[in-house]
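so i finally got all the pieces together for this one. its two components total, 349 residues if u count the protein bits. some of the lines might not be protein, just check the labels. i wanna see the whole assembly predicted at once instead of chain by chain like last time, that was a mess tbh
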Amino acid sequence: MAIGWYLVVSALIFCIGAGGVLTRRNPLVILLCLELMLNAANIALIAFARMWGNGDGQIFAIVVMVVAACEVAIGLGLIVALYRQRLPVDVDDLRELHG
Amino acid sequence: MSAVIFFIAAIGALAGAIGVVALRNPFYSVLALVGHLISLSALFLLLRAEFLAAAQVIVYAGAVTVLYVFVVSYVGDGTVPLGPGGLRLRNVSMLFVGVLFVELSIAILGSGLKAIDGEGAPYVPGFGTPEAIGEALLTKFLLPFELASLLLLVAAVGAVMLARRRMGGTTLDDLPYDESRYVTPRSLFSGTMAEAVGALHAPPEDPRQTARQTAPYVPPSERKPVPAAAPPAAPAADAAAPAADDTKED
């Protein structure tokens, strides 16, 4: 398959994830959609690594996965802390920092 | 053959992504993410990234989604109807996403990279294997590797600090053990797998227990004796229907 096809899939997944981040209000689902966007970036990185025959792009993808794992740990910790404080788990109701 | 596998995996990945966004129940969203990630690892294999495909399945589909499932079970179903203005916001964001996709398509179609239409560089044995990745990580990319480990450490410590129970300046560890502080603030049946998939609806919360949970902390020694709300059940009835007794108590 041509490399361009992988880039098209990557762009589609990125757009779906961006739409989810903008439309959903549950922070859990927003985190899931962020995962989608990071994975879309990963496909593009790996496709370009294949295109040039250079393994450095795969190292980039591993770093992206590490960052995604950290983001999940912190994000889920925040959600659990919100739930413990009996705050609404809804990004529209959490506007303490809104001003 | 690779084209067939590519289209199956790509359709699976896109369907999983749409499922994550469109499904109302967060539990099903997580399951859709698992399907998405497995399809994605097939795409990685087609791109000769063997180590990354394995890492994707083990780290993401194995560990991260288990974390998600636990938190969805703990927090419960958070589906709420859209508030006023939500529909307009959704239309605007859909427009934004459409514009974003058009822009990305222009970037891909108008790219000056000739190799985009090709299959990629000729395959060299050892490309994308654990040996190649490990060698690159420990020689060329040693500093990013160490920084990534530091980032993981910071994230782990931060998650522990966030998820810790706190009350003002003191923690529960500083106080004498009191059972009522350790009751999870939620009603019966909430936080179970059955509720997460919508098979079960939690009864309304007991206002008595909610008041106790939100009331300021009083040490057990200074507490006034509280009269029992319900008379204790007879031992025979208790033994006959323990489950019914449980629901009454909670």
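The first helix of chain A runs from residue 3 to 23.
The helical segments of chain A are 3-23, 27-52, 56-84.
anyway lmk what u think
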